[in-house]
Amino acid sequence: MEFARASVGLEGFTPSALCLEHARYFIEGEIDLDEFLKGSLPVFETPVGE
């Protein structure tokens, strides 16, 4: 997860606490890929600056 966070940071982005928590659920096996992707949609639909 640290590698992914660093990679995102190098692109100029900072993941929210909600994004990091959601990713942790996936990495730890608490949710599957479908749940992870469905849960990520609201993040990508949020306009920049909100």
Description:
- With about 50 residues, the chain is mainly alpha-helical.
- It has one domain.
- About 65% of the residues lie in helices and about 0% in strands.
- The protein is built from three helices and no strands.
- The longest helix is centred in the C-terminal third of the chain and has 13 residues.
- The mean pLDDT is about 80.
Instruction: Report strand %.
Output: under 5%
Number of helices: 3
Overall number of structural domains: 1
The percent of residues in helical segments reads 55-70%
User: Could you say which structural class the secondary elements and strand pairing correspond to?
Assistant: mainly alpha
Query: How many distinct beta strands?
Result: 0
Taking the alpha carbons of the first and last residues, their distance comes to 25 Å
What string, H for helix and E for strand, traces the elements in order?
HHH
CA radius of gyration is 11 Å
Low-confidence segments: none
So what's the overall shape? globular
Largest sheet: none
- Indicate the mean pLDDT: 81
Q: What's the layout of helices and strands?
A:
Blueprint (H helix, E strand, L loop, with lengths): L1 H9 L6 H11 L5 H13 L5
Helix pairs in contact: 2-3
Q: What's the short story on this structure?
A:
The chain contains 3 helices and no strands. It has 50 residues and is mainly alpha-helical.
Jot down its keywords.
mainly alpha; 66% helix
